[in-house]
Amino acid sequence: MQKRRTEEGFNLSFLDVMACGLGAVLMILIVVKFQASTDAPSTEIERLKHELAATQQQAQSLQKKVSIAQQSFAQTDAQNSDTQQQIAALELVQQATKQALSEQRAVVADLESAVAAAAPLQVDDPIQLQGTGEENYLLGLKVEGRRIGIMIDASASMTDEQLIQIIRRKIGPTAQKQQGPKWQRTKRVAKWMLARVPKNAQVSVISFNSSAQVLGNRPVSSAKVQSSLQAIVNDIDALVPHNGTNLYGALQTMRSTFADLDALYIITDGLPTMLSAVQGFRETKTCKPLTGNMKTIDGDCRARIHQFSIAQVAPKVPTHIVLLPLEGDPLAPALYWNWANNTGGTMISPARSWP
């Protein structure tokens, strides 16, 4: 009986093993090559690009801010340098001003001493005054001339400085008007002028409000005659300040009383409020001083009356003006200064303690 060859269910040969190993190697090579040739996802690249652009833009913005800050710092530093230079210059100016002021004070003190030493004693004056004395004579105001005219404003506003007080005294009794502080001062100024009139001079004194009045025994008095000056003083003491101010009428009266005067002195506190019946003045809706039916008159209208009066009847001589304070008349100082300056005279607004 023949023997059967035994058959096995699984027979692995060397070639099979080699084939399997070669296949595995090929598979590994295929996989590695696939992974090497596969690109990164496009969305990730775009994200990275956007982040890079944003970072670059932020860096540029920061660089601009740094540049602006550097420029601002440079400008601030330059401004600080200019400010320091200005401060130094101002300090030099301040020092120079202080030195100049000190020198001017010394000059004024020397002048006051010289004036006090050169002035005559008050007891020699023809008019005796109650005041603080000769040492307080005003520098710049001197009564001089051979034919002197003095005009005293005796209108209602000459009683006081404040409008409310002027109104109260205006409706009050005569004694209250005469006791007004500004009127008392006005009388002292007028007497001060009379006391300083040169001995060889002639003088005419006129008081004026709505009308003009010549004071004294005669229209023109000699300064040598003490009784004549005393008569003028007596008339001044008897005056009662009231009514408005007619500068035109006062100047017209002065010219007709003393035609050839060579110096004019005026004591007043503001611009005129009235005008005589004359031709040539053009009235407007808000300025009717000729008709006399205006309850109030504004500053522009008063200025027009002032200028018209000067142009028409003011004498062409040096005109000196003592302007006392008045509330609510801001144009008066400039206009009176122009009048005095144009004639070669002096306009002063003295301290309340003078004379």
**Which architecture of the largest domain does the CATH hierarchy give at level 2?**
3-Layer(aba) Sandwich
Provide the gyration radius in Å: 52 Å
What is the CATH topology assignment of the largest domain?
Answer: Rossmann fold
Strand content: 5-15%
Instruction: Name the CATH superfamily assignment of the largest domain.
Output: von Willebrand factor, type A domain
**Strand elements, count:** 7
Largest sheet: 7 strands, mixed
Structural class: alpha/beta
Catalogue the unreliable spans.
Answer: 119-125, 130-138
Total count of domains: 2
The CATH class of the largest domain? Alpha Beta
Distance between the termini: 179 Å
User: Approximately how much helix is present in the residues?
Assistant: 40-55%
Overall mean pLDDT: 82
- The succession of helices and strands, N to C, reads HHEHHHEEEHHEHEHE
The general outline is elongated
Walk me through what this model shows.
The protein is α/β, with parallel strands linked by helices and 355 residues long. The chain has two domains: 69 residues; 223 residues, Rossmann fold (3-Layer(aba) Sandwich). The chain is built from nine helices and seven strands; from the N terminus they run H-H-E-H-H-H-E-E-E-H-H-E-H-E-H-E. Strands 1, 2, 3, 4, 5, 6 and 7 form a seven-stranded mixed beta sheet that branches. Helix 5 runs antiparallel to helix 6. The protein is elongated, with a radius of gyration of 52 Å. The N and C termini lie far apart (179 Å).
